[in-house]
Amino acid sequence: MTDVINPATGGVLTSVPSLDLAGTDAAIDRAQRAFAGWRQVAPGDRARLLRRFAALVDAHLDELADLEVRNAGHTIGNARWEAGNVRDVLDYYAGAPERLTGRQIPVAGGLDVTFHEPLGVVGIIVPWNFPMPIAGWGFAPALAAGNTVVLKPAELTPLTAIRLGELGLEAGLPEGVFTVLPGKGSVVGQRFVTHPAVRKVCFTGSTEVGKSIMAGCAAQVKRVTLELGGKSANIVFADADLERAAAAAPASVFDNAGQDCCARSRLLVQDSVYDRFLALLEPAVKAFRVLDPASPDAEMGPLISAGQRTGVAGYVEGADVAFTGTAPDGDGWWFPPTVLLAHSTAERHWREEVFGPVLSVLPFRDEQEAVRLANDTAYGLSGSIWTRDLGRALRMSRAVESGNLSVNSHSSVRYWTPFGGMKESGLGRELGPDALLSFTDTKNVFLATD
Ligand code: NDP
């Protein structure tokens, strides 16, 4: 059994079983046996089951959100959005089974048709920072395409995933079609990589573990989707609406206490407005409400663990602190929103993913330098560009090496548009209409008619 901790208090919430290798193998075997039946379920019936699953998530939205507040320290506003996101993703992909159509391709002497066949068992490995959405982005399209799913939540945050597994069964998914397996990454997660019946692994987490998963999957030529780290740039040009950009900047990096792969943790400000922008940013950071995450006013809660807090503090130690916000005292893994001035791009807090409420700031001269600085990272997940010049917005959007950009906005994630990284931020795309095909093999069949 593993203790589950409330990060806002440091107290033990409950404990959950931790599966061993034999238990993992048994669950994968059940998922493999369930596959034959699930892929045969008529498309309309599969769609109905997914819609029923979505309706049950909706009916339990408050309960799921409350679990996430207590287990992950997410603010109640965020947690409700996250549970709603699982519902919406299920509803969106519930429209897919009847639309998973192949093609008919003209060839001489016969007919060529394609089929999108489900892969088999899909293994989904979920991190602790967004336990519900990241689970749903994997299991909803995987199930819609006719696969069965085994899902490993992070050891720190298993509670909502376990509940979603129960709701799936209650919705009528047959036994073995969607199974949640709490346990260690090195045991349960690793087995998804090595078990031959698992035909695809969806991994979200650190770049380091992601690389080892990709290497492991190569041994069985197993499909893999990786959503890894980020060090995204928020680029503010002098011609931007500075008030709007400054008001939006805190949430773009401090949301979820900065434990967000899309966090805009590098702020690049054009030198001619640098002082003015920092003067606008300071009150916005100080006003950012770090409170008990159950409070409806909270904009940010605690960090996930004592270890995470120690790691984040290590980036701030010895750095040039421009200003900080506030955080509650006492129990729990609290850390205030913190803004650091970067004096060179070699500084650790500028280069590495902090995964905490820490923003690093650097001025730039012109568009060319902004592009160079934004791309001077191994990562490429998200980012924002603030300007009133449409041509510049488009030039920058094409030049910044990142999978998800927003202009005059910090929005990165919509379930109906693709999401994923460039460079070491990942491989493959989740969400949107095309993600479904990555859970299938396209089969090509030629029928001779002559
Ligand atoms: P990890 O990459 O270690 O964990 C993510 C998931 O992978 C967890 O479910 C974990 O299980 C599992 N896992 C760990 N090792 C293996 C393995 N060898 N084989 C299969 N699965 C494995 O991230 P951490 O939680 O340790 O976080 C460390 C850092 O990674 C963060 O500080 C942040 O910088 C980054 N990160 C990035 C995320 C993103 O969204 N891109 C998400 C989370 C972290 P278990 O719970 O047992 O460890």
Overall spatial form: globular
How many whole angstroms does the radius of gyration measure? 23 Å
Main pleated sheet: 7 strands, mixed
Strand share of the residues? Answer: 15-25%
Helix and strand content put the structural class at alpha/beta
Ions, cofactors and other ligands present here are: NADPH dihydro-nicotinamide-adenine-dinucleotide phosphate
State the end-to-end CA separation: 65 Å
Mean pLDDT level: 98
Low-confidence stretches: none
Strands in their spatial order, largest beta sheet? 12-13-14-11-10-15-16
Number of strands: 18
Helix content: 25-40%
What is the count of helical runs?
A: 14
Walk me through the structure.
Helices cover 39% and strands 20% of the residues. It has helices at residues 21-40, 43-59, 61-72, 76-94, 131-144, 159-171, 185-194, 207-218, 242-254, 274-286, 306-316, 348-351, 367-375, 390-399; strands spanning 2-5, 12-16, 104-107, 110-118, 121-125, 148-152, 178-180, 198-204, 223-227, 233-236, 266-270, 320-324, 338-341, 358-364, 382-386, 404-407, 426-427, 440-448. The strands form 4 sheets. The protein has a 7-stranded mixed sheet, with helices on both faces. A 6-stranded mixed sheet has the order 7-6-5-8-9-17, with helices on both faces. It has a 3-stranded antiparallel sheet with strand order 3-4-18, with no helix packed on it. β8, α8 (207-218) and β9 (223-227) form a beta-alpha-beta unit. α2 (43-59) crosses α6 (159-171) and α3 (61-72) crosses α4. The mean pLDDT is 98. It binds NADPH dihydro-nicotinamide-adenine-dinucleotide phosphate (NDP).
